[in-house]
Recover the amino acids of this structure.
């Protein structure tokens, strides 16, 4: 059996990690848990990009550059997302998203 | 934690950790890289599941660090050493610390003891499993027309730098401006409102 030398193994692993992130994003109540799940999903996509770059020699450098840019954008997203959670927490005193129901009442 | 649970965790973890290498020795896996891939994949998926299922959110954050570390190892296996280094620096060094700080700033005393999941957790789990199965089927059914590890060698960092600052210089600058805007926006959003007077 071949694992490290097959593109399929990397892509299936990436899909599994993305599915775990999806589940966490949909199911968790804590806003910070949801942000962590988004980080997992971004990392899964990065793994797929790196895997394609690793198996297509012409794409190796482009894949690495794009993965690093995805990391930078993920860092920006984490900064703003966590700042928003902290700002909401200061007003509502809870990190649980289903208690943010001001627009439903 | 008592002695017996700790012993059980050590035995189970050690058994799972050495299984890939046993498979290599038995000849089921082709070489040591495959064993390492299996080990890192197991750590990655296990830590990922812990991130989304554990009750104590601080432990979720620590499991996220383990998850990112396994991912850095996978990047090394996939011949992208610079990305692995950036993963350790950016994710483990910066984003994890940011997340842990945000957890500490927003934790209430009763948060861990209350319900962790929404009531839609079961449909969400079904949707995630369906997504994973669809992705796996699509990957398996597609002929990617790439060789299996023919002439794989680490991505040269010098060429990567040339490419990044020549062909990708515009996206690079856009990302730098985006980071600046995000940092300013983050400071503005998280800043405590001064009493206006």
């Amino acid at each position: 059996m071949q694992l490290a030398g097959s593109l399929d193994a990397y892509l299936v692993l990436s899909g599994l990690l993305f599915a775990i992130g999806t589940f966490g994003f949909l199911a968790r109540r804590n806003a910070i848990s949801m942000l962590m799940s988004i980080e997992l999903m971004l990392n899964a996509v990065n793994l797929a990009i790196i895997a394609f770059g690793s198996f297509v020699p012409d794409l190796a450098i482009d894949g690495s550059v794009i993965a690093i840019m995805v990391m930078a954008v993920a860092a920006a997203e984490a900064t703003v997302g966590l700042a928003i959670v902290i700002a909401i927490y200061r007003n509502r005193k809870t990190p649980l998203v289903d208690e943010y129901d001001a627009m439903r009442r | 934690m008592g002695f017996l649970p700790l012993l059980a965790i050590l035995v189970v973890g050690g058994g799972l950790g050495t299984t890939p290498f046993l498979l290599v020795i038995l000849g089921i896996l082709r070489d040591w890289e495959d064993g390492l891939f299996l080990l890192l994949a197991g750590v990655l998926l296990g830590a990922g599941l812990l991130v989304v299922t554990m009750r104590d959110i601080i432990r979720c954050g620590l499991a996220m660090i383990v998850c990112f570390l396994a991912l850095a190892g996978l990047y090394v296996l996939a011949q992208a050493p610079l990305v692995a280094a950036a993963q350790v620096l950016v994710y483990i060094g910066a984003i994890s610390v940011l997340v842990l700080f945000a957890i500490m700033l927003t934790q209430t005393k009763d948060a861990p003891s209350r319900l962790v999941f929404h009531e839609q957790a079961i449909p969400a789990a079904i949707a995630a499993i369906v997504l994973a199965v669809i992705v796996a089927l699509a990957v398996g059914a597609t002929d990617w027309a790439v060789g299996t590890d023919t002439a794989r060698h680490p991505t040269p960092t010098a060429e990567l730098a040339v490419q990044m600052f020549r062909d990708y210089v515009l996206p690079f600058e856009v990302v730098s401006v985006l980071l600046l805007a995000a940092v300013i926006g983050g400071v503005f959003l998280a800043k405590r409102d001064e009493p206006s007077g």
